[in-house]
Amino acid sequence: MLEVASEKLRDDTPCVRYSIIVPVYNNASGMNSIVDWFDRNDFFSKSVELIIVDDGSSDPVKPKGCSGVGYYYQDNTGVSGARNLGIEKARGEYLCFLDSDDAYHDNFVDVFDEALASGSFDMLVSAPCYVQASERNIRSHSASAGRYRSNDFLQAYFSKRISAHVCSILLRRRFLLEQGLRFDRELYLSEDIFFIVLCATKASNLVLEEQSYFDYYLVEGSATNRIATEKVLNHFKSFVAISDLDSDSSLRRSKNYFVATMYVHFLLKLISNKTESSEVISSTVAMNKLLRQPMVFPISTRGLVLFLFRIVSYLPSRLWLFFLTRFCRP
Question: Could you tell me the pTM of the whole model?
Answer without folding.
Answer: 0.92
